[in-house]
Amino acid sequence: MGEVESEAKTTDAARRKYEFKKKLEELMSKEGSGTELITLYIPPDKQIHDVTAQLRDEFGQCSNIKSKQTRTNVQSAISSILSRLRYYKRPPENGMAVFCGTILLGGDRTDLQCTIIEPPEPLNLYMYRCSSKFELEPLLEMMEEKDVYGLLVLDRREAYWGFLRGNRIDPVNGATSTVPGKQRKGGQSSVRFQRLREIAINDFYRKVGDRASEAFLAEKDFFTHFKGLLIGGPSPTKEEFEAGGYLHHEVQKRIIGLFDIAYTNESGLSELVDAGQDALKGQQIIREKALMTRFLQELVKENGNAAYGEQSVRQNLETGAVDTLLLSTKLRKSRLKIRCPNCHYHHEETVVLPPGISISGKNPGACPSCSSPLAIDEEIDIVEELTRLAERSGSSVEIISDEFEEGAMLLKAFGGIAALLRFRTGY
Ligand code: ZN
């Protein structure tokens, strides 16, 4: 691939990603008046006729819906999806996500809208859901920046390499060698046979080193996103390969570890990821630890570039002063808008929830002015809100685990929210 062409491809990918994000934001803002917005996720290997069969079934079950308006709206949405699916013999390469329903436009105007999204990564779930909002979580997950690791498995006869992106293995290519087996043919001198065999092994290692390095270095943002390389195989092949320095020096210095595995074809890649799990986790903690150490160093400096606490960090985000937003993985904090359905009373409160506990169980109590039961009008997830602010100002976001001392400190001493700053502000 030429340089110009590869640059065009990068720009194209960035533009597609931006458009994908914009579409998700649009869908996020849409609401139906009842439980009548349909979300349908179809993975690439699903048969379209299985999907249409389920949709027809759902259509029939609509007769159980009590509200006539909701029933009509759900049935219109299902019909609309069915008519669109007729154009598909099979799902697109990465599957498809369909969002369809009667959208509230404000006032009493509504509009039946259907959006089909072909995601940038393969969908791995099938889902049919009817709700007052569209279900976007599986697509939002694709937006997260993921660390990339290189994977390489080899013995003296074959090799395979690929990437680990988030939790997904992305195989790239392999190679096989012409290295003769250990048994020499009769009449060949043992010394000469050994010599030839070593040359062939060396050639194979060089070929693997060159081609795998080329694939890894071609990765977009190699210097910022490529976090390391795992090498798997039997002993002493992988040790020999590492010691020989067959990889490009930028790749070579990113080797995280060598792991014993049995397979050296494509299926060896997932075996390697399993074997390297602890090393990968350790790697992540090393990174997080470095960020927290930097934060603590800045904090003790006079006029250091650090901030913490929801209020201060939010204001720094709004002024574009945040370089890296640090959020504890255990932080679950929401701002609730609470309202009395009976009078004009309303207030806002912030709640911190233990992970895994949902807000829906919370009882907001009785209205202080008329004693009617209060209702939760809106829940704003503070982690989500700060993350969105960070994206808007080009700050990076790091989720910090509490499995090491400084990480636990972030949660306990700094309320789970901190920031490394680009410059000092008054906040
Ligand atoms: Zn009241």
Overview of this structure, please?
The protein has 427 residues and is of the alpha+beta class. The chain has 3 domains: 30-142, Translation, Eukaryotic Peptide Chain Release Factor Subunit 1, Chain A; 148-180 and 196-281, Nucleotidyltransferase, domain 5, CATH 3.30.420; 283-427, Ribosomal protein L30/S12 (60s Ribosomal Protein L30, Chain: A), CATH 3.30.1330. 40% of the residues lie in helices and 26% in strands. The chain has helices at 3-28, 48-61, 68-85, 137-143, 190-217, 222-225, 237-243, 249-252, 268-275, 277-300, 310-318, 382-392, 405-413, and strands spanning 37-42, 96-106, 109-117, 127-131, 148-154, 158-165, 168-176, 226-233, 255-260, 306-308, 322-328, 333-339, 346-352, 375-381, 396-400, 417-421. The strands form 4 sheets. It has a 5-stranded mixed sheet, with helices on both faces. A 4-stranded antiparallel sheet has the order 3-2-1-4, with helices on one face. Helix 2 packs antiparallel against helix 3 (68-85). It is flat, with a radius of gyration of 28 Å. The model is unreliable at 1-10 (pLDDT under 50). Zinc ion is lined by residues 340, 342-343, 345, 367, 369-370, 372.
- Round the mean pLDDT to the nearest integer and report it: 87
Percent of sequence in beta strands: 25-35%
Question: Major sheet: size, sense and barrel closure?
Answer: 5 strands, mixed
Named once each, the bound ligands are: zinc ion
Determine the N-to-C terminus distance: 49 Å
**Assembly level:** single chain
| H-E string | HEHHEEEHEEEHHEHHEHHEHEEEEHEHE
Read across the widest sheet, the strand sequence of neighbours is 7-6-5-8-9
Helix content: 25-40%
Low-pLDDT windows of residues: 1-10
- Helix count from the secondary structure assignment: 13
Write the CATH fold name of the largest domain: 60s Ribosomal Protein L30, Chain: A
Counting helices, strands and paired strands, the structural category is: alpha+beta
The CATH superfamily of the largest domain is known as Ribosomal protein L30/S12
Return the CATH class of the largest domain. Alpha Beta
